[in-house]
Amino acid sequence: MAETSRPWHHMPDGTFRNPPGCASRGQGRMKHAGPFFLEMLKMGARKVDVPEGHVVPRPQAVRELNSHAQADDDFITWLGHASFLIRIGGLTVLTDPYLTTFAGPAGLGPRRYVKSGVPISALPQIDVLVVSHNHYDHLDERALARLPNKEKMTVVVPLRLARFFRERGFPNVIELDWHERYEVKGVSLTALPVVHWSRRSGFDTNRTLWAGFAMKSENHHLFFGGDSGYGPIFRDIGEAYGPFDTALLGIGAYEPREMMKASHATPEEAVQMGRDLKARRIVGMHWGTVLLTVEPPFEPPERFVKAADAEGYEPENTWIMRIGETRDLAGSWPSNA
User: Fold this and answer.
1) Which end of the chain has the lower number of beta carbons within 10 A, N or C?
2) Mean pLDDT, residues 273-277 taken together
3) For the segment 18-64, what is each residue's pLDDT rounded down to a tens digit?
4) Alpha carbon separation from 218 to 144, 248, 279, 328 (Å, rounded)
5) What is the pLDDT of residues 304-329, one digit of tens each?
6) Sheet containing 91-95: which strands, arranged edge to edge?
7) Distance separating alpha carbons of residues 79 and 92, to the nearest angstrom
8) Does residue 138 have a pLDDT over 70?
């Protein structure tokens, strides 16, 4: 591809990079990497005290999901981390299915301290599987192996991830570059730039693309942020694609900042993302499931709600969900207080 025609995020060596104006992962990482990884090794054996009410009991979660699935209205169910079951325009969409125990290969890596909100066996039939990037806490190979009806679902992924899914029994895979769009039964899915990176092994850094996704039906426009740091690109997305009815935004895994600012937003930055996106409602995700960084695990929602209030978001449009909880996307919702 000629230099003049290659998009900004496509590098000459075949790798990808973040949008202009974003923090670089190389800035300050080496200085903080040693202490960070030592701390994370200690945290690997740490028991997390999960507050009462953080998780919906599984039988109740399954009943509530089934009740919504039998109706026609749009809804979301938080399965934990960045994994949601979304009903939009009659389609059932599953995002970033980290649904088993470890965020790593072969029983290694961080271990989730709460189970998926709904067991894989109780999920309704999935029409579309959307995956934002290839990190283990978003692309769970063991969960993929257990998903039924692979031949019936459509998988939508960023560039160069299709082969991974086809090799694992998913025949219907659509790869999208940033700003490319695919439509399924009247619902459009558009891959959008976010601030992150990719790696599945030690030798494939940034060889596959990462993305957020806009999902738009006749009645609802939803932004799924995948995994992202903050950057000016969100203002650009808001201008080009907004407004959004609902934005699912990462609010956890942000400390130490010098290590994480180019990968994960703080809760305050997530609220700013929502404003930039022109989102009416913001939903915190990517927290309360697995220890990936060193901030207190239940700090993110407090900061998110406080920042949203300061930015003028009404309490009914600032959602902190329980793992396993299902909420209607139409209308408003009672305050989190």
Assistant:
1) C
2) 98
3) 999 998 776 455 444 445 444 444 555 578 999 999 999 999 999 99
4) 30, 19, 17, 16
5) 999 999 999 999 999 999 999 999 99
6) 173-176, 154-158, 128-130, 91-95, 83-88, 75-80, 326-328
7) 14
8) yes
Which pair of structure tokens corresponds to residue 179? 């700003």
